[in-house]
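@channel anyone free to eyeball this complex?
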Amino acid sequence: MRLFRTTLFTALVAVGGALGTAIPAAAQTTLNVVTAGDQNMVDYVNNFLGPRFEKLNPGVKVRAVGTGPGDAGSQKIYEKLSAQQKAGTAAWDTDVAVVHQRGAATMVKENLLAPYRNEVAAGKLVSRDSAKNALGQNVDGYVIPMFHSQIAFAYNPDVVKQPPTSYAELAEWVKKNPKQFGYNGVKGGMSGVGFVMGWVSANSGMAEQLEKGPYDASKKAVIDRSLASLKDFNQYVVMTPGNAGTLDMLNRGEISMGPVWVDMFYTWVADGKMPPQIKLELPRPGLPGQPMYYVVPAKAANAALAKKFIDFAASPEVQAEGIVKQFNWYPGIDAQHVKAKMDEKSWNKLFTDISPESLASYGRPFPLSEYFTDILEGYERVVLK
Amino acid sequence: MNHRSWAGLALAAPALAIVAVFFIGPMAMSAVLAFRGKDGGFTLDHFAKAFEFYSNDLLFSAAIVVLSTITIGVVAIAIAGYLTLGEHPRTLAILRWLYRWPLFIPFIVTAQVMRTFLAKNGLLNHVLIGGGLIDPLQAQSLLDWRGIVIAFVWKQAPFVTLLVAGAMASIDRQHIEAARNLGANRLRVLFGIVLPQARRTLMVGLVLSFVTMLSVLSVPMMINPNSPTMLTVDIAYRINSHGDYAVANALCLMSLALASLGAWFYLREAARKAERS
Amino acid sequence: MSALSARPGIRWGDTVARVVVIALLAFAIFGPLANLVLWGFAERWYFPNKLPQEFGLTYWARVFAPRGSALASLWTSVGIACLTVMMSLAVAVPAGYALARLRLPARTLILLIFLLPQAVPNLPVYVNIARVFYELNLNGTVLGVVLVHAAHGLVLAVWIASAAFAAVDVSLEEAARNMGASAWRCWTTVTLPLALPGLIASAIFVFLESLDEFTGTYFVGVPDVTTMPLLMFNASMGGNYQIASITALLLLVPSIAFMLLVERFLKADVLAMIGR
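replying in thread with the prediction:
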């Protein structure tokens, strides 16, 4: 028994020592950046933004933590802020958060965020609608987009010679090519949800109203009718396990077409997980996209520094060098400011598969949150039953 | 209450306090949301909605977990039984070394490897086709209920085996030797002598696996999040896509009811044992 | 297990059956693990290639990038797991003993209470767990993370400890007491050593449970305390198989080391007992 105890004690001391070194000395200010989304967003803050910002601001250490992809990642940030609000914590432990539209809308509604856009210079470089409105919630002043993310069809041109350009053509195509199209339903992530939203927009004839309002609860019947055709459609397609699941099946050649997030797609290409021939395409009348937002929690411990950080991260130089050049993501601030800071070739790489015109007309916002709920629940009632 | 009950409660108090403060309290705070209407009054609407939308998934979850638990039990008895009664030293050494590996693999990693292993063009089918066991056209994806069951059994069977093998090892060898000398074959010894004495441990392991599988999100989420799926996926979906904690908590309580049903088997046995002593 | 029913005399068929069964089991266990190892070193792997076209260490370099602080978070994970084991055992041994041996009111209820953290899908509860920890000023501390892990692991520790104590033959204790040993001496020299294998098994499970946990760590520890499973979770959910596989492989090291260490002491202890 003694041997056991001595060793345990030694282990304890070693552990204590390790913990001591794991927690950095408090001599400097630590800026906590918590980001939803894929691991590469954490890497982006850690390896690209962090060192550059620290060089400009001696004594500051940028620490990035990821919360996981999709709305689930944003929800976890929301829950942590909400917990601090309810506990009456004076200084919140998150200085900058990067969240999806749905998360930002909820946070603004529950007073978890500080308005800051008008206090930073980069705030003047954003004018698109999605910088002011998230799923019908007014977020004007609370957010600056980090990058814009878009859902598109990825397809393998070896199999799909002529990709369908509309939902009607797609419905025809899957009948001729059963089990070649795959999407991830509504419970496995937003690329599947986005596809369902696009389907309803195309087949209900109320695309405009879904995005701009006004909300009309009596339209549920119209939505349900457009979903009935989706039930039929589903017989000919593969249901994939999640956003990454769709990419996964494209990777293994099990499907030859499916809706994916463009930014995720490029990450998979960069990581050597996507056959090089796979291309992207946007169908008529469109698929949804959304920005990821930089936000500052209402009681961030280092609010002033947080604003400085976002101002830096949203500057045209950083957007050009980091967001567009390094990741091939659509910029968050208005395009002309970013385009001016970079060479033509790198800029055009963004539009290899999807032209700027196609993106402008077929890249759509998500429906208002009330319609969003109606469509999802309609899907569960009509399609899944 | 007599002196001994107070002593017992005092001994259990620190452990109970940790669970009460850091889990039961927060859980109660969440669970009330399942009964609170928009106006703040009591309602069962959230349960009605949960049933309307997810009763299929409730049954699906129950079926998956029961099937997985039974399979885990069979695998654990087989391996632990051989470890106790087997006579071939090298086989025993290999088996002992072999069976534990999945124990060290977290659920989420299990889900991830199974997703790429069991897929239509995954490693499993490559091996089967390469070995001439199936035709390429016969290759099919196992990423449905089968994938979930396989992942659960793969991950949990070693856990139960380790427990049961430990319990079997502590059984008095004399009983076993005596029975063997009387001519009983190993199967009879296993079911007649060894297993009854390890029964309680087997139940503990199976009940723990049963409830754990009910509350794991990553396996159904990464293998088959589409309909029908397990309740944990629905809970995550209600929260992440709808911000709907009310229905999520109602589903959570439904899942708890299912878990209690499983735990009841064990607790009944434990209670009976307590009465005897 | 056809080997179970085999009789001497049919040796040859027996051997074949044994080899086949072991081979199948090995494939069932290492097949999926092979995927893990392959992805850990794959630089390029897509259809129609059945195996990675290009192997390399790029992603290992990424995990160990100085700013990623992977090693620090791995150490934090191990430290937290050790502390969780100590805390769990410290409270589970008396609780397990009481549940096995003493007449407890509402014993069944108490057993069920320990099961709750494991049985309830945690997602809707974490927002309130975080709130409680913030209110107690435990958020962002190692102690907080240890407590949240312990609350989850306790069922393993308590239930298994209780089963282990229940299995100890009461007549042995009575014999010791009859020979004049004090209650405490009887407990430390008879009861505890006999229950030790079970307790050690529970330590392994609590250790693994803590080492794999990420959601509780996020809500209670982040951003001040970060562990390796957090990285693994992000990478895995996003389909970043390389990073997820590497972190999983790294986490294998402390898991297996702890198991070997504990088993070694178990054997040493048992051997030491024989001489006395």
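from a first look: Chain B touches chain C through 103 residues (CB under 8 Å).
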